[in-house]
Design brief:
heterodimer, A: 267 residues, five-stranded mixed beta sheet, 10 strands, 40% helix, elongated, B: 537 residues, mainly alpha, 0% strand, globular
Amino acid sequence: MLRKLALFLPALALTGTANADWALNMPTGVTELSKETHDLHMLIFWVCVWIGVAVFGVMIYSIFAHRKSKGVKAEQFSHSTLVEIVWTAVPVIILLALAVPTAKTLIRLEDSRDPDITIVATGYQWKWHYQYQDEDMGFYSSLSRSSLEARRKQSGVDPFSVDNYLLEVDNPIVVPVNRKVRLLLTSNDVIHAWWVPELAIKKDAIPGIINETWFRAEQVGTYRGQCAELCGKDHGYMPIVVEVVDEDAYQAWVDTRKEDAPRLAAR
Amino acid sequence: MSTIAAEVNDHAHDDHGPAKGIKRWLFATNHKDIGTMYLIFSFAMFLVGGLMALVIRSELAIPGLQFVHPEFFNSMTTMHALIMVFGAVMPAFVGLANWMVPLMIGAPDMALPRMNNWSFWILPVAFGILLSTLFMPGGAPASGWTMYPPLVLQTGDAFPFLIFSVHLMGISSIMGAMNIIVTIMNMRAPSMSLLRMPIFVWTWLITAYLLIAVMPVLAGAVTMLLTDQFFGTSFFLAAGGGDPVMFQHIFWFFGHPEVYIMILPAFGVVSEIIPTFARKPLFGRDSMIYAASCIAFLSFIVWAHHMFTVGMPLSGQLFFMFATMLIAVPTGVKVFNWAATMWKGAMTFETPMLFALAFVFLFTIGGFSGLMLAITPADIQYHDSYFVVAHFHYVLVPGSVFAIMAGVYYWLPKWTGHMYNESVGKLHFWMSTIFVNLTFFPMHFLGLAGMPRRIPDYSTQFADFNLIASIGAFGFGLSQLIFLWVLLTAKKGVPATDAVWDNPEGLEWTVPSPAPFHTFDTPPETLPLLKQEEAHA
C-alpha cells in the first residue's frame, strides 16, 4: 500500500499542477437549464455564506470578547420578543424570495413536451441500452475495454494512464446540438439513475415505471456521467457518455449505425 | 435549594444495592446501570462502524481497486450506516436519557425498569445477528442502509437476518421511547411543570414520540420486503403489479423523522451545556421548545425530498420543496438562540463547551448544505453525489456525535465522581475537529464535481480530494482512541464536587458525585432555580 501510495503521490502532484482547475464547483453545463440550475446553486450558496458570515461572526466575536478570562461579568438577559420575531420573519422572507425562481426553473425542468428526438434508456446490471424511437435503432453502452482492464482489483494498470478512467464507454449516445432530446428512462432489473452533470439531468430508471426528462445541449462536445443510484456490485462501472454533434454529423452517425445494426446484432 | 435525602435513603435500603458480578448487568433494572451499558455498547458500535468507514476510506484513498471487491465495499457502506445509525447514535442518546432523565426530573428510576432491561439487551442480540451476516454465503447486506427494492432482494442468505435484526432494533427503540415518555409524563417532581422541564428532557420527550410514530412504519416496510421475498407478495415488484417507489415513500416516512430522532436530543444536550459555560440563561427557552416541536411536526411532511429524482409529479415536488425550506426557520431560531446565549456571557472553554461550540458551528454548516439540498433543481444535481454524503455526515458526526461527546464530558464527573483529564479531553476535541473537517469538507467538492456516492472506485479527476478525505478519516479514527483513554482513566482524576461546574442549572447537580445507586427515593420538594429565575430573584 505504502509503495503504491509513493508511486501515486508524484502523479497526484502532477495532476494537481497540470489541471490547475481542480473541480471545486458544480459545472455550469451546456443547456439553458443547467445554467439556471447552476445560478440557483450559486444563489443559495451565497445566501448561506452571508447568513454564515453574520451568525458565525457574532459567535466568533463573542468567543473572543465575552470570555471569563477577560474579567467580563455575564449579563443575565434571557429573551427578547422583538429580536425573536425578527429572526423568525427574516428567514421566512428570504425563503419566499428563493422559492419563486426555484419553482420557475423546476416547472421548466419538468416540461418535456414537443421533443425533436426521443431516446429510451434502459438500465441493466450493469450497462445502459439506448433505443432511438424515431430511427428504429438501438444499442448497448458499457464500460470501455481499457477501463475494464484497469478496474480489476490490483490490475497493475495505473488508472492515471487510462484516458477517462471509468468514464468511457464502447458505444456513446450521439445527439444533435440545439435539439430537444427527450429521455424515457426505465430499467430491466433494479433501480438505476441516469446522471450527466453537464446536462443537469439526473433521473431514476425504475423497473415497471417510465420516467421522462429532457435536455437541449447548446454546445458540441462530449459529456460524461455515471449511474447515480446504487444498483449492485458494478454500480461504479456503468458510465454514460453523450456526444453532442452538429446536425450533419448526427445524420451520418445514424446512417452508419443502421448499416452496422445487422452486424452488431449478429455479434 | 432542595435537600436531597438520597444518601440517607440509600442506607435504609442497603439490600437494594447493586447485585454482584455479571448478574448486576444481566438483570439490571437500575437506570444508571442500564444507561452505562447503553453508552458502552454504543461506543463499541461506534468503533466497529468506524473500522468499516476506514475500510471504505482505504479503498477510496487512491483510484483503482486495491483492497476489497466491489460487493464487499457495498457491504461496508451498508453495514457502516446501519451500525452507526441504529447501534451508535441512537443507543448513545438512549443511554444519556437513561442516566439523566430521572436525575433531571427528580424521579427515583425509569418508570418501567424491567422493560428498560429488555430494551437494552435486545440490542447486542440484534447487532450480533447483523454482524454475523458478514460471514454468510452471499455476504452481508450490500444494498445501502436504505434497503431499496428490488436491489435488496438480491441479498444472499443474509436477507432474513437483516430484516430480523432491523425488527429487533425497532422493538428496542420503541420500548425505550415508551419508557421515556411514561417516565417524563408521570414521574416528574411534583413542582416541575412541563415548561419548566430541562431542555434535554423536552427534546427527548419529542424524540420519543417521533420514535413511536415511525419505528412501526419501518417495521412495516421491511416486513413487506420479507413477504415479497419469501411469501409471493408483490408490494414492491413491478412484475407482480407492485411499485418499487412505494417502498421509498414508506422508508422515508420513517427515515426523515429518524434524522430528527438523531439530532433533537443533540439540541437538548447543547442547550444544557452552553448556558452553563456562558454563565447565562438559555436565550429564548420557550421558543427553543416550540422550535423543537415545530421541527418534529415538519419532519412528517418532508420525506419525499429524499426522492426528487424518482419521477414525482410536479405538484408533489413543489410541495415537498416548500415544506423542506420551511424547516430552516425553526432550525435557524435554535442556532440564533445559541448564539444569543453566548452573547455577553462570561465564557470558559472546558471540553464539553468546546464540543458544544463545534456542534453549533459545524451543525450549521450541515444545515446550510441542507438548505441548498431543498432547492429542487440544484438537489437533482446534488442527489446521490458526495455532496449529500458531506451534508449528512456534517449533521451526524460533528452534529450528533459531537453532541454525544459533549454530553459525556459534561456529565462524566457526575457519573464517576472524578474529573476527567481536561488537557487530554481538549486534545481529543482539537484532533477530532480538525480531522472531521479534513474528512468531510472535501466531499462537498467531490459531489459538485460529479462523483456519485457508493462507488468503490472513481475517475482520476476525483483523486486529490479523496486522498485528503481518507487521511482525515484515519486521523479522526485515531483521535477516538484518545477518547477511549479518557474514558478508561475517568476515575483517576481529582474528586468532583456535587455541582461539578460553575453553578450549572438543574436537579442532577444537587445529588452527590458520583450519583448514588439510588437517587430521589422521595421526590425533591422544591426545585433549584432556573438561571433565568435566578436573574430575577
